[in-house]
Write a structure and sequence with these properties.
Elements (H helix, E strand, L loop, with lengths): L7 H10 L1 H21 L5 E8 L6 H11 L2 H11 L6 H5 L2 E6 L3 E8 L2 H23 L5 H4 L1 H22 L6 H27 L1 H5 L3 E2 L14 H25 L7 H8 L3 E8 L12 H9 L11 E2 L3 H18 L5 E7 L3 H15 L13 E7 L15 E6 L5 H13 L4 E11 L11 H8 L10
Parallel strand pairs: 5-10, 6-10, 7-8, 7-9, 9-10
Antiparallel strand pairs: 1-3, 1-4, 2-3
Helix pairs in contact: 2-11, 4-6, 8-9, 12-16, 14-15
Length: 466
């Protein structure tokens, strides 16, 4: 498991090397969001109508009116008044909501599939709330009983006018009878006024009835959330984040060995050095053709993203010196000239190219002299990491393992080491190959002597990795 996979540089590498895949997944997520907006969350429009409750109201009484506004008694009457085909009161109850606001105001919200329907629904529920509240304030739900108090007030008003007419018709003189008649009429008028005042104080409908709808509901100009655009953006963002998190989880669970000490420990041998292989545009692309391979190349998933970008290397002369140093360390490590197998994991194109260059350098060694025993004879063998198998050690007396970093797990390398032991081969060393960005050279066929001498004197021939 890698412990260095959640840095910002890792996320930037994913964005650079997997941008095609991430873009395709984001588009797919946008399409899923669009489909959800059409099938699961069609556009809905919401608007509100306000109802004013005059007088003094306690909080619990306001909450009671809120419950009444969304009750079946009000919503069913609103559904009957609207007369929408195929829409019942039970369905409208899910589309109506109410809440108490400051100033004894109840806001009734209606949600529908069109702006006009939302406006009509909220206004109709508000009207039905006012009508229903007026009826129950009079102590009965009967419309005739609800108007009894108002009729009584009209009769009292008519009686007052009749008293005035009688007072005016009486003898305008100053006789005792006329004065007594006017006094009696005024007492009757005063008694009626006091009785109506007491009736108004005792009647709850006089104090808390008279609800008023405060104008028409505003026509909604936009859909209620989640809108279609919000669902599209949310789908694209969700798929993008899931793809990014998937890459990070895969990198976190990656068990491929990326450091030279880990590779050496898995194979149970020593590291002879590192060599450079010029990167090629198709060096890391798996072979294959057909629609699936074409799609993988189109999305950019045919190459690994978690490999660091290759560094810029020197010229061809510097790279060849690294190979010569590895061959020199092999020569100094072996007691006598020997023939070695160069084992390359099957599918490791970088290691295969490095092994070929090692063989070429070993064959280009001049004839052994008294001061040099000559480089070992090398033969490249590719083995499968699933079931590694090597030939018996009859002609070759050792193995040189060449592989690239970040490609193989410890279990796979241990299997190669066990296969070497089964074939009676000793792993004499390990060479790690890495890709570099090659620079154009003026003379790549033969390195100049000055460059060879300059690089050769930097350190001893034997020792650590080059």
């Amino acid at each position: 498991m890698s412990e260095d996979t959640i840095r910002l540089v890792t996320i930037g590498r994913i964005l650079r090397r997997r941008w095609r895949l991430l873009a395709v997944l984001a588009v797919a997520g946008a399409l899923v969001g669009y489909g959800a907006s059409v099938l699961l969350f069609p556009p809905r429009y919401t608007t509100s109508a306000s109802v004013l409750l005059p007088g003094q109201w306690e909080e619990r009484e306001l909450l009671t009116q809120v419950d009444i506004a969304t009750s079946s008694a009000v919503v069913d009457r609103a559904a009957a008044a609207l007369g929408w085909s195929g829409v019942s009161g039970a369905e409208l109850r899910d589309q109506v909501s109410a809440q108490a606001a400051d100033g004894n105001i109840i806001k009734i919200s209606g949600t529908a599939d069109t702006p006009d329907h939302a406006q009509q629904l909220s206004e109709q529920v508000a009207q039905q709330l006012v009508t229903f509240a007026t009826r129950i304030a009079g102590g009965s739900t009967d419309p005739e009983a609800a108007t009894g108090t108002e009729a009584l007030r009209k009769k009292v008003a008519d009686t007052n006018r009749r008293i005035t007419d009688l007072a005016n018709a009486a003898d305008p003189g100053k006789t005792v009878e006329s004065v007594q008649a006017r006094t009696a009429l005024e007492k009757l008028r005063t008694s009626l006024q006091e009785a109506m005042k007491k009736l108004d104080e005792a009647d709850p409908a006089a104090n808390k009835a008279g609800m008023v709808v405060m104008g028409s509901a505003a026509r909604p100009t936009g859909a209620a959330p989640p809108t279609r655009m919000q669902l599209i953006v949310a789908g694209a963002l969700l798929f993008f984040l899931l793809a990014l998190i998937g890459h990070l989880v895969a990198a976190r669970m990656n068990r491929r060995l990326c450091t030279e000490p880990e590779i050496a420990a898995a194979l149970g041998s020593t590291l002879l050095g590192t060599v450079d292989v010029p990167g090629e545009g198709r060096a890391h692309r798996p072979e294959g053709s057909g629609p699936r391979a074409w799609i993988r190349r189109l999305l950019g998933v045919d190459t690994r993203w978690d490999i660091p970008a290759p560094q810029r290397s020197g010229d061809e002369a510097g790279r060849r010196i690294r190979y010569r140093r590895v061959c020199a360390r092999l020569r100094d490590q072996l007691p006598a000239p020997r023939r070695l197998l160069v084992v390359v994991p099957d599918g490791d194109e970088i290691a295969r190219r490095a092994a070929g260059q090692l063989v070429a350098e070993a064959e280009s060694d001049p004839s052994p002299s008294s001061s040099s025993r000559g480089y070992p004879k090398l033969r490249v063998v590719e083995v499968s990491v699933d079931r590694p198998m090597l030939p018996d050690g009859d002609t070759e007396s050792g193995v040189l393992v060449v592989l690239s970093t970040g490609s193989w797990t410890a279990e796979e390398l241990t299997g190669i080491a066990d296969a070497c032991a089964d074939g009676r081969h000793e792993v004499v060393g390990i060479v790690v190959a890495g890709t570099v960005r090659a620079r154009p050279t003026r003379n790549a066929d033969r390195p100049p002597d000055e460059a060879t001498l300059a690089l050769a004197v930097r350190g001893p021939v034997t020792g650590g990795s080059a």
